[in-house]
Fold:
Amino acid sequence: MKKLLALLLCLVMVLGLGTTAFAADAKSNDIVILHTDDVHCGVTDGMGYAGVAAYKAEMQQTHNYVALVDCGDAIQGETVGTLSAGAYIVDIMNETGYDFAAFGNHEFDYKLPQLAKLTKQAKYEYLACNFKYLGTGTTDITYKPYEIVDYGGTKVAYIGIATPESFSKSTPAYFQDENGNYIYSFCEDDDGSALYKVVQDTVDEVKKAGADYVIALAHLGNEGITDIWTSKAVIANTTGIDAMLDGHDHETLTMKVANKDGKEIILAEAGQADGKLATIGKLTIKEDGTITSELVAAKNVTVKDETVDAYVQNILNSFKDSVSKVVAKSDVELPDYNGDKRLVRNTETALGDLAADAFRVMMDADIGIMNGASLLNLNNSDTVFTKMRSVLENTPLAGQYKLIVIIISVVLVAVVLGLFLRTRLGLAIRATGNNPDMVRSSSINPVKTTIIGLCISNAFTALSGCLLAQSQKSVSIDIGTGMVTVALASLLIGGAFFGKGKIPLRIFGMVVGAFVFRLVYTIALRFNLPAFMLKFVSSVIVILAISGPYLKKQLPYLKRRFGKERTHA
Structure:
């Protein structure tokens, strides 16, 4: 009897162990990829890095394969990054448990030698397929284009893509040698083909190496970004990418975009719609091969990793005294926020005025200027384009909202300008341009009409700048570079075709001239001309436009001359 009981007990124990082993194997084999972007040193904002670490741990309890990646702009943006030149952030990301990261444009803000130190310090891997060294010497600033990870027999390739806008949205000199020559490249060109090619080549390489899935870790963005370098443009011009995790424009989204073959590809971005680390992205590659994407809000991540939280607080406390030290006092408030809206880069601030006054006093100058930024971000602002998009939503014209705004703007300007030029003042301005001496003899002040004409033209210039800024969702100090040449060429081309018509016809000619100029420019781009040749193309267009009317007048004479020569021969 005792032997029987002992046998039964052993059997129960074996079954219990088997049940335990079964429970351990019951974890899902779905591959979960958690992603963040544009944290900008917000180590305690939203769910904080402690919340990110806790959510990763939560996923690991139910899934065998979990990865955590970042899509750029993590190490810059606040004091914790500035005081350590990014080193504190890398340490925190190490503690959080990141596996891979892409380069954002602000990863380059502390100069390349420091970036090299940070990437060696990182326990996670930085990836960049399109960041190339062009110099002839040796350099440590080189990075893997991709990494392939085997998740229980399923191979996932991670490819890093950095924005070519890093040249202008970091510091250009950091990518140059002592002579000002660029020795680094982000595979930039005038039509995006160089970027598309290097991405496609990398995708083909990882596929050849046996990757079952290709996940792009990008810092490209879409809203307010150079059109040819957006994540949507890269997806549309490549094949083989299964999902693109993105950053750069701070948008929060998960959507599908058709690739070169028409296949719908997931594009996801955690962004900053409600602040830094307000959301974390979750991409899931299921066992059946389907891929899903969702965004997890900070309010749903209620647990924080105590170890990471303590680690972050220890770092923040290490420089708390130095940043809390009072160096001066102001009799007026120096706010950075008006409610939920940040003032910096959006409006004049009291602190900016203080800095400008300080510069003026210290330099004994008459005027002091403090620039908020060379780039004004309009991503979170309503524009005429976003309003038109809302109006046309769920209509066949939904995708053409920008074109419609432009057409309406051109028509309105043309109508208003045409009506104005028919008025007495408009006639006086036209006459001043044709013959100022005659205008002066008619008791009209040509100086006055000239000034009024310049004011009107500059008003239209400002209007075009506003529309361009709203379209790009950003304002840069060099936004109008080269526009004078474009305007002059368009004017001359229009004048060559419709120079002697009535006012409406002449205005129509200017519009046609602008189209012709851009058409020629586009053709030049299609021939893959180098950037410096485009200025030459512009010059040729202007020369042809100027010489066109003269050659037209000389054409009858040339016909007669060459006709006589052929007759004599």
Notes: The domain at 26-316 is CATH 3.60.21.10 (Purple Acid Phosphatase; chain A, domain 2). The chain is about 45% helix and 15% strand. Confidence is low (pLDDT under 50) at residues 11-15, 17-24. The longest strand covers residues 28-36.
